[in-house]
Amino acid sequence: MDIRWKRFSHSIITKVIVFLIAILCFACAVTIFSGSVVLNDGNFGIAFEDSYYLGKDYISDSGNVVESLREIIQKYKSEEYILNGGTITEDEIKRQENRLFSEFEHNSKSYNPNLTDEENKKIFQEVYADKISEIRVGLINEELKAYKATLRRLEQYPGLVYYANDGTNEITNSPDKAKEYFKTFPSYLIFDGFEQKVFPEQIKENTNYFWVSSTINQLGPNDSMYLAYTDEFLYPRMEKWQQNKALFTYRLNQMAGLLLGLAAAFIYLVIVIGRKPEEDQAVHLNRLDRLYNDFNLIICSSLIGLWLAAMVQVYHTKMYELIFPITLLIAPFGLILVLSLVKHLKNGTFLKHTLIYSIFHKLFKFIKDTYDSGSVGVKVILIVIGYPALVAATFFIFPITIGIAAWLALRKVKEFNAIKEGVKRVKAGDIHYKISVAGAGEFGRIASDINTITEGLNKAVANQLKSERLKTELITNVSHDIRTPLTSIITYVDLLKNEKDQTKTQEYLEIIDQKSQRLKTLTEDLFEAAKASSGNIAVNYEEIDLLSLITQGLGELDDKIKELELEFKINYPQDKMFIQADGKLLWRAIENLLSNIFKYALKGSRVYVDILDLGTSVTLIIKNISAYELNISADELMERFKRGDESRSSQGSGLGLSIAKSLIEIQKGSFNIEIDGDLFKAIIQMPK
Description:
Layout: H1 2-40, H2 56-76, H3 79-83, H4 90-107, H5 117-127, H6 129-155, E1 160-165, E2 170-172, H7 179-182, E3 187-192, E4 195-199, H8 210-216, E5 224-229, H9 231-272, H10 293-317, H11 323-347, H12 355-373, H13 376-393, H14 398-427, H15 442-498, H16 502-534, E6 542-545, H17 546-556, H18 558-563, E7 567-571, E8 578-581, H19 583-600, E9 606-613, E10 617-625, H20 634-637, H21 656-665, E11 670-676, E12 679-687
Parallel strand pairs: 7-9
Antiparallel strand pairs: 1-2, 1-5, 3-4, 3-5, 6-8, 9-10, 10-12, 11-12
Helix pairs in contact: 1-9, 1-11, 2-6, 2-8, 4-6, 10-11, 12-13, 14-15, 15-16, 16-21, 19-21
């Protein structure tokens, strides 16, 4: 007991430790991931970048510069161009006027709904004349602000040298506008019409290069753009890239290790959860597992939502140090609920242990039980009430509901026709016909009842045929066994009438006496068999030692046993075997079996007597080898006037086994015989 308790406690401690490891691994992995997202927008790809030029950072900086220069040469061109309204379109001015007119329509007292739109627009132009005139100026100022903001973005890149030209206007911060000058820098991008040159050339192998090329493709045939990066621009960015690469590589390795530990811990918990050491393989559920699985899923979803909401709040407040404790607080509850779902999956009750399934299962079971066990009237009422309700509840799939109802109705019609056809066949005399209607419904039970009737008819016909055959054989056997001694008596009486020799007369009288005794024995056996089978014998139950009864009886028959040179082998338990029986009737049955052995057993063979204790009953088995070939079944041998020798040359009546069986059965026991080749076995079972 102590060893089992120690193993059980060790198992619990191991599960708790593995559970804590899973929670810690998950919380640490989430914290590292969140910190990485804050650090570099979650750019974990930097850990797999081979160089700065092939990385996302280089393309991001270059793309911003190219987009800013494109806007300047294609849209803004120059400050003078903007002040002259070159970037303003009539559509933009019209949209602003429409916005002002909407304001006039809803807020101005000068608006008159009784006037036409044209008349109101004239009033609008008079009332909002100052604001309309300011629209163009306002749009120009906005464009000018955007232009200057774009220039400031370019100034944020120290060490950047650029030149852009659309054929008329240009913008540059380079002292030399020649392409060859730009090619002297450590890295450059030159786009002149259809010419594109970048250095280092591996930049084109960057998977994110399409960000730059998509902007370049928007340049016109007369547009030119030269970019060059000095060491002042490249060195700090390369150094930062290397630091971030090392940091993210380290954090990815950390996360991989933590996730591997989490996976191993979770797999272990999935395997051992619900199992107890040194017990069967059944899944053991606890009180928490009584929670319906659909509620469990709702709570799990709520915990995930709560955690996500907390993470959003953490990012908004920038209190990143709270990520680990919040995760550590919520994760255990989620893992406990998930492991509960795993238990139900292993137990095969994932769907069955839901509230929705329970409700619908009970509802359907109630309807099915009512339909299957109720009367036809109840079923009709259920159909009349239930089907319209079902149609109303499923009106959106009305054709499907009608189709299912038609299919069910057709199925019932087929079942009815099958029963009707079956009744006709049985009525016509085909009692072997079976009606094939499955199910526990009304038609199924009717078909089963009709099939049962046909089976009863088959058995009745078979029994009738067997009875007729047995009756014929009984009459034949009785006639033969009675006629033989009777014929001998008549014959020797006739001889006796004319015989003068006193010696032969005495011999004839002895033969007549033998045959008359034989006839008397047959008559008494027949009477006893009829009496035993009718049950009209008084039974006086008493406690009998079966072994003593057999040994005492065999002692009385010792002379007969020696005469036939039979060897009896008795096997019995150490304890005495007492049974409830009538001693006289029981010995009469056993005596019949022994008499049967004396008549038919092979001379000089062994007879085995086994007494077995079966708990509530005692079994007596008597086995012997027959002197005659037993080419007959056990059932036939149990019939009255049947003998093991078909020639009927032995002195038996054929009633011994039948009498023994009847005597044992009226004592609440059982009697059977078995035949295996020439081995004859009689089995008597009596209650203790």
